[in-house]
Amino acid sequence: MKCIIIDDEAMARAIIAQRISNFPEMKILEEFSNAMQAIKYLNQNKVDVIFLDIHMPDFTGFDFVQTIKNPPKVILVTSDKNFAIEAFEYECIVDYLVKPISEDRFEKAIQKLKVAKVPSKTNASQDEIPSDTVNEFYVNIDRRLIKIEFDTVNVVEAKGDYILIKTESKNYTVHSTLKKIEDKLPKDLFLKVHRSFIINTKKIIDIEDNSVLIAKDVIPVSRANRPELIKRLNLL
User: Fold this and answer.
1) Among residues 29, 74, 138, 208, which is most buried (max CB within 10 A)?
2) Rounded CA separation 72/87 (Å)
3) pLDDT 10s per residue in the chain (236 long)?
4) CA–CA separation, 205 and 193 (whole Å)
5) How far apart are CA 62 and CA 86, in angstroms?
6) Whole-structure pTM over 0.70, yes or no?
7) Whole-angstrom Cα distance, residue 70 to residue 87?
8) 32 to 1, 18, 96, 106, 212: CA distances (angstroms)
9) What is the 3-state secondary structure (H, E, C) of the chain?
């Protein structure tokens, strides 16, 4: 896997490079002391993973991730423990390493990276990845990461700046957008049937022209999304 290191401290870059050298499958292409140089490099070159410091003079690590279009996998390396929860709101971030980093902890990060890279090795698109490859997703609620299993979700509903996730046993209110939640859900199991609703198609009890019944909720189905719903139900 091709990687780059971005850290404004030379000693930190050297330590990360030394850790990486223990893994023959990893190849360091470049090291950068500031984010702007790295952005220019990424505009011309493709990498598999970035080892990225959070605190830099011109950019934070999060600013950097948001700046890149289609970012590769990212392993954050920092001396600050306070941003771990925020970090995992970004799908590209694989792990969060706090300096000083032990060899064992670094090895665990590389193992996580290998697992995260499995889909791209098969050239499978997100639509083609079976839903049982991963069984859950995480949401940030009151600065805590909450795990929710896909199979337990009935309905996801947009409510202004918040999202209501209804599961078999509990409801969760998340400060997010419907699009962000939709991106976390497997497309073979979930379908957006209305601008404000995503449903688990396996949980449909009944269907009428303009609505479906899931548990005790009647969910509207827009005219534009109805053909896809009918097509999906024919495949169940």
Assistant:
1) 74
2) 15
3) 999 999 999 999 999 999 999 999 999 999 999 888 888 898 889 999 999 998 887 678 888 888 887 889 999 998 888 878 778 778 889 999 998 999 999 999 999 888 876 543 334 444 433 444 468 888 888 777 788 999 999 999 999 999 999 999 999 999 989 998 998 899 889 999 999 999 999 999 988 878 999 999 999 999 888 888 888 776 44
4) 15
5) 9
6) no
7) 17
8) 18, 15, 19, 20, 53
9) CEEEEECCCHHHHHHHHHHHCCCCCCEEEEEECCHHHHHHHHCCCCCCEEEEECECCCCEHHHHHHHCCCCCEEEEEECCCCCHHHHCCCCCEEEEEECCCCHHHHHHHHHHHHHHCHHHHCCCCHHHCCCCCCCEEEEEECCEEEEEEHHHEEEEEEECCEEEEEECCCEEEEECCHHHHHHHCCCCCEEEEECCEEEEHHHEEEEECCEEEECCEEEECCCCCHHHHHHHHHHC
Q: Which residue has the tokens 């490079």?
A: 17
Tracing tokens 């049937």 back to the chain, one arrives at: 193
Residue 124 identity: A
